[in-house]
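Q: what sequence does this backbone want?
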């Protein structure tokens, strides 16, 4: 039987996935020909992969922590 708290944690992870998708779209938009060669755009686009790696690591740690909590309750 699924608990309410597990739906909340799945919803948070869904929001993280949407944030990652938004970062990827932003990176592609910043690489448009009109602004691709500006310094701020290059630095911003260069930081996106590092942000995604940090978000992924945090999401994995969050999922492992909440999976352990849910398996002990079952």
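A:
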């Amino acid at each position: 039987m699924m608990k309410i708290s597990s739906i909340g944690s799945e919803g948070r992870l869904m929001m993280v996935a949407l944030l990652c998708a938004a970062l990827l779209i932003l990176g592609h938009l910043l690489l448009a020909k009109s602004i691709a060669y500006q310094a701020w755009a290059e630095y911003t686009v260069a930081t996106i992969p590092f942000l995604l790696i940090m978000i992924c690591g945090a999401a994995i740690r969050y999922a492992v922590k909440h999976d352990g909590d849910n398996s002990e309750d079952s």
